[in-house]
Structures are given as C-alpha cells and as structure tokens.
Design a protein that fits this description.
By secondary structure, the chain is an alpha+beta fold. It folds into four domains: 225 residues, Glutamine Phosphoribosylpyrophosphate, subunit 1, domain 1; 217 residues, 3-Layer(aba) Sandwich (Rossmann fold), CATH 3.40.50.620; 106 residues, no CATH class; 64 residues, no CATH class. It is built from 29 helices and 18 strands. Strands 4, 5, 6, 7, 11, 12 and 13 form a seven-stranded antiparallel beta sheet that branches. It has a six-stranded antiparallel beta sheet with strand order 2-3-1-9-8-10, with helices on one face. Strands 16-15-14-17-18 form a five-stranded parallel beta sheet, with helices on both faces. α3 crosses α4. The longest helix has 27 residues. The radius of gyration is 25 Å and the shape is globular. The model has no long low-confidence stretch (mean pLDDT 89).
Length: 641
Amino acid sequence: MCGIAGVVGWKLDQQGAVAVGKMVDALIHRGPDDGAVWSDADNGVSLGHRRLSILELSVHGSQPMVSDNERFVIVFNGEIYNFNELRQKLIKSGSTRIWRGHSDTEVLLAAIEAWGVQTTLEHLVGMFAFAVWDKVSKTITLARDRMGEKPLYYGIVGNRFVFSSELKAVKAAFGGDLRIDRHALAKFVRYGYVPAPESIYEGIKKLEPAHYLNVDSLSSVHTPVSYWSLPKSSALRDELFHTSDKEVVDIVGERLSAAVKSQMIADVPLGAFLSGGVDSSLVVSLMQSQSTASINTYTIGFNEPEFDEAPYAKAIAKHLGTNHTEFYLSADDAVSIIPHLPEIYDEPFADSSQIPTILVSRMTKQHVSVALSGDGGDELFAGYPRYQITAGLWARIEKLPLPTRRIMAYSLRSLSSKGWDNVCSILPGSVRTKVNGRRIYRMSELLASENLAQMYTGLMSQWQPTDNVVLGISGQDQGAVSWESADDYIEEMRRWDVSQYLPDDLLVKVDRGAMSASLETRAPLLDHRVAELAFSLSSSQLIKNGVGKWPLRELLKRYVPTSFFDRPKAGFSIPLAQWLRGPLREWAEELLAEERIKREGYFDCQKIRSAWLQHQNGTYDRGLHLWNILMFQSWLDKNSR
C-alpha cells in the first residue's frame, strides 16, 4: 500500500522532478517507509512513489521500478494477490529474467513487459492503481482495480498532465491553479461525496474503477477504457439458478475462503476489523479457520447503546478465539478528530462513519500493519433493507398516475417529521420501530419519482437537486440519473451501489481513514471473482424470508451461533443528530454563521440557516443534510488558506 504521483510536460529541466517531490512528500502517510522520484528529462516525465512496506521489505521492492529491458517504469499502489501464480505463469511461458526479489510490483512489471498492459489487467487479482511509462511508445498508462479500492486522480494543470493517489498531492505542487467546480459541489451536497469521474476541482478527474487511460502527449489524453464489468448474464447464472441452496452456500464458501487465504499473505503483522455484523464476522471466521494461531481483531464501540455493536463483536471474538481489542468512541473523541478531517479526506467527504473508521484504524495500526475488513457484503449480496423497501414501494406506486403520487407526497409533507413522530407514538411498539417521522417525510420526497432510478438515488441523497442549495447551479444542471431497467429491481439498485456508492463513498472512507494511520486494509468480499459470483445469483437466492445476504448468513452459521448475529442491522454510524445539538453545536454554529456563508458565496444562506434551526428545535432531523454542508465548510476553511 503506497502513494503514487507524476507529472508529464517539463522537458529538459528539473521542474518536473521538483513538483513530483512536493507531491510525494504530501503522501508520506500512505508510505512512511521509503520514497523516491524517477525522471526522464528528454521526454519530460517524472514519477514519484511513497512506500508502505508490506511484501518484500528489502530494496528489491522499492519504486519507481524499471523493467529488465529498461523499456517500462512503474509506480504502483496496492496489492496483487495472485502475484505468485502470475510469476509461475511467466516462468512457464519461457521467461528467462533474473528475479531480484519476491514483490508483486516486480511481477506486475514483468507481466506488462511480456503481455502488455491490457492483457496484464485481465490477469490481475487485487486492489491497485498504477502508472507505467513506456519509453518506446512514449506513452504513460494509468490503471485502476476493478472494484475501485485504490484511488487515482488525473488531469491537466498548467498545461501539464498530472496524476496522484490523493488530491492533496496535486494541491501541494499546483495549488494556485486549482478552482472549485460548483457542479461537483452540488453533487457532493447531494450525496456526501463527489461521484467519479469528477473531483471537487475543475479539470481534475478520478479514473473510474476497472478502467485504464493512455496519455500519448499533452495534446492526446485518450478516453478511459473499461476492461471489466459485472456480468449481466452468464452460464454460471443459468447453472446456479438450478443449484440447491446448500450447494450455493458451498460455492460461496469456497470462493470467499480462497479470497481470504490469498489476502492473508504479508511480510508484516496482520489482523482484521470486527464490527459484530455478518460480513466482518464471516471474514474473521474464515481467517481463523485457516490460521494455526489466534488472529488479531479490532472493534470500536459507542457509549450510546443504540449505536453500539461492540458487545456482539466481543462475544464472536471469544467464540472464535481471536486476540481481541476494543476502543469506545465518545463525543470528545469525535470533537478531537473533526479538525483533521479536511486533511485526511482531501476533497469534501461527509460519511459521518469516517470518524470511527479513522479511530479504529489508529488503534489497529498500533498492533498490525494490515487489516482485513468485511466491506462490500451488503452491496454484493443484497444486505441493505432499503433494497426490499424501495423495490416494494416502487412496485406498488409505479402504475399510479404521477399527478396522484404528487398529491400523496404533498399530503404526507403536511406534517413535520416531529408531528409524524407524535402520531406514530400511539402505534404498537413493533410498528414504531419501523415507522417514524423522518422515514415518512423521506418517503414523501420519493413518491413523486418518475422511475426507480430517480427514487433510489433520491433515497441515497440528502439535499435533493430541486433544493437548489448551491448558488449558481440549478437542479436541472445537476444531471438526471438513469440506468438500464431490468425485471429485477433489487439487482438494479445493487448495480448502482457497486458502481457509485461503494467506490466513491465506502471505499474512500476506508482508504483515506486507514492510510492516514499508514494502515493497509484488504476486503476479501471485493475479490472480483466473489463479486462475479454474487451477481450470478438471483435476488431470490440472496434474500430469504425478507432477510438479505442469505448465503453469507448460512455460511457464518457454520462458524458462529446464529444468536450472535441474527439481529437488525445497526450500521457503522455515530449519533450525529444528538451530537449536533450537543457537543458539536458550537463548532457547527461557527461554520454555519450567516455572515460567513454569505461572504463565501457557495450556498443559499436562508436554506442552510433554516435547516439548522429546524434541527435545533427538533422539528426535523437535519443531521445528515447539515453534515454535508459542515464538511464542505470545514474543508474550505483549510483549503482556502
């Protein structure tokens, strides 16, 4: 796990190397063990690397790395889990190269030398972002892993092509040339993250997952090319449709076990995050079953019982026999980390679970350098209750005339969320746990949707495009969301999550949070072969009796008693609404001050202040809406200096 950066465009002088030096210095948290810059002055290419040593701890794993024939130079971030298999394949194909070490970087470079970039990408199993310079074709190629675990930004700044693992590297060398993109800001306010391929800065893009990009010269930045996508139909899908439930669980178990085994290879201490939920518990179970010693597990808890899953994690750890460590997060801990969020998430980012993610990463790094996680289980195996709720709602209302649905939506909004809470208070307890004012009010926003895509992305948004909260950008300018319709509504939503929410929110949260502590994270469920299997299963095979992730739950039962994990999903969140009315109120008040918002000129001040007052007086829960604004305000405060 490392940080990479580069510049193309400064010929016959040292400015490129100096700029890249500044860029990799800004990435030292991603690679505290070593760093170097390589330059080709004749062609104006400079590549930089910061190293976090995980495999091949000697100098034979150092980068930038030059190929044996000196044609290719690579900077690489990530892990290639099947590098030993690829090495053997290269040897069997007649390769006579003399291997200098046992790093995956050397194998990757040798594969590119033998097969070319595109064929090599088809062979890789892992998480990665890399840039490789070809001295013969005078082409630099950027590539990113299939699921989007490792980040990669690129663009033209000051007539030069630049790329890096994080935006802070670009800012370190070219900060004076960067301008905020209001269209990207509007999407951030909506989702709480900036969806790829955009970034918060004009002219800087994110390379999308499963894509590569060729750059021949400054005047020829090619269109990114996709090299993989999740299957929409396959022979495996037809085969699995006629497979028994037990066989489905066996197949999932075999493929996931193999992924876990491949990701336990490291030359440094290794452990796992354990939340107590199905996904992390299953990963830990498979790790422990393949280890002769007790593995290390780490959990973060909350003092608020409704958010705390630490006791469940502790019970599972005890049952499996892991070496378990836990840390309880308080409001004071959150307050202490908030000033550092703009530095860690170097474009605006507002998934509030970023706070516990950072703190559990810091705790974990005190013991190990690599941690496996359960990320991806909900998106791949239909674990979110929202899939079934939204599919059911859309199936009921899609045939109603749109004007009728708009009237229904208006009627539901006639009461505030607090008013609906009062109404719901008279309902039986079993119903009150599922229905509340916030959910009813959110449903009212979705009833007027024109299609499932609009309904689901509306559900996944905070501020809606029609709110027009960003000045200078109308709702119409934010772009309509659409996707290819299918008979399986749940699969449609999962595909959107895997293409946007997972890589641009969840994986950003984990990558930046963990790398800020110089901790490498690995996610076995995101092995692309596991993902392909998940999307070869029908929704009826993923959901049984109204509960998602059925194959994963059945597999977990083989290791852990059902009573340990059979409970409603809690999520990895903080009590944000309460904290904004309490310990975070003073901090938020300062960032949302009327004169400040007007002076900066990005937001409609009246709408922001109205949301703040509604939240404080309890009329509506605006915690998530406000967090998006607060994260931009905090980021702007740090990045405008």
